[in-house]
Specification:
The chain is an all-alpha fold. Helices cover 66% and strands 0% of the residues. The protein has one domain.
Length: 73
């Protein structure tokens, strides 16, 4: 939704728990979409996105940080 419509004013806390659960899902497609959500948030929120990634696994955080570097370029 973020990629399609952009960031609107809303409280991320309403969605954060769901995004975190999806990122830790056993379904690879669901995990991938959660990671895409973080990447889309990074486009609008920049470095602030890293502050909401605390509930992700270390490997996921590392991968997202690499992806964020690519997005910066």
């Amino acid at each position: 939704m973020i990629a399609a419509f952009g960031i609107k004013r809303f409280k991320l806390a309403h969605f954060q728990e769901h995004i975190d659960k999806t990122a830790n899902s056993s379904n690879p497609g669901a995990r991938n979409e959660a990671m895409n959500c973080y990447k889309s948030m990074y486009l609008y929120m920049g470095e602030a996105t890293e502050s909401i990634m605390n509930n992700l696994k270390k490997a996921q955080q590392d991968q997202l940080k690499k992806d964020f570097e690519e997005i910066k370029k």
